[in-house]
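ASSEMBLY PREDICTION REQUEST
Request ID: AP-0331
Submitted by: J.K., bench scientist
Number of chains: two
Total residues: 414
Priority: normal
Notes: Please return the full assembly, not individual chains.
Input sequences:
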Amino acid sequence: MRRFVVIGQRARGSPDFLLGDVPGTSGRLDVLLRCVRAGLLVSHGLRRDTVVYLVLLGAPEAPRVLRFDGAAAKYLRPDERSMAVTAQKALAMEAPAGEGFVTVRPGVGLASGGLDAVLGDLGPGERVLLDEGGEDLRGVELDPNDGVFFVGDHIGFDDATRGLLARCCAKRLSVGPLSLQSDDVVAIVANELDRRSLTTSGRSAAP
Amino acid sequence: MRRFVVIGQRARGSPDFLLGDVPGTSGRLDVLLRCVRAGLLVSHGLRRDTVVYLVLLGAPEAPRVLRFDGAAAKYLRPDERSMAVTAQKALAMEAPAGEGFVTVRPGVGLASGGLDAVLGDLGPGERVLLDEGGEDLRGVELDPNDGVFFVGDHIGFDDATRGLLARCCAKRLSVGPLSLQSDDVVAIVANELDRRSLTTSGRSAAP
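STATUS: Completed
Returned structure:
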């Protein structure tokens, strides 16, 4: 299973944002929603082997985590407004603290907690910190069908998060010479993994 | 100059779409707007060396072309709604047939006509057709600072467009083993060009 964990330093864990102004009222949840599209959607299809976690660290109900699971997701549309509607409906639900993820819509889970809730849910798989100063992804050995990739938002990681991730990640990798928007980072990583997992004769047998 | 030309088979050349339902009312202009973000925006900045053309072939006012020029663009925000507002304002303007591009906002031009209007505006630079059956981009020589990349929308190219592009493009390239959404294709091509044009010591002297 491929997993992307996107950390929103200010993205609100509550549904009280305006669909007509998501960037201005949600703590830039739009940045994170674009990562869901990039991670899960291909042309006319879903990546069934991918999960995207959005870690929402912005007040007032934070920290909370939204989990989008390609294996179970339905009706996921690529446009940002549809993604925002889905997130808003999910964030209106309850998720008792300490009980992990509650399924609030097909393929969409909600948990109370921050990175701790994600780390408790991830299971095995190599952890990779995607960071602009890291080693170039292309030259590094990776399991293309199993791994966890941590991505920052438009602000990047704060010191506490970076410290925690430095301890739990085996590798620190970058996707190229420029600092890119988070969803482009996700798209480029997914493409690199596709290239390694798919043969010219078709999709590999991996999940 | 890097140029991306995104062809919207049904994207409307008129401003009469709803900001609250861009996918359902604009002929999927949302697909094209996401390509503008992927082509022009990096983390906290604009790609000044890139131009994105959106070819709008959907009735009633089509064909028309929107041109987003990174060298002159201002106030371009990454969220889809902001992009749609910019496009809607631009499409409300007039562009006399046969007179090329009219600047309707900083860095945003509008022309009457379809691919012909784009071809008349492009100037020199190798033409590349991005197509899922093409040769892998990574193995092919390209000028990373100058080139024109034609991208399809969610429908792909119709036969007439494909025929025209086959005649004017020197190369037919793909970005990987899966058929991806158009904006991810743009992001992956831009990343490949960045890798070739930027050295580890910093940005090259190229424009």
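REVIEWER COMMENTS: Residues 200-207 of chain B have pLDDT under 50 and may be disordered.
SIGN-OFF: pending second reviewer
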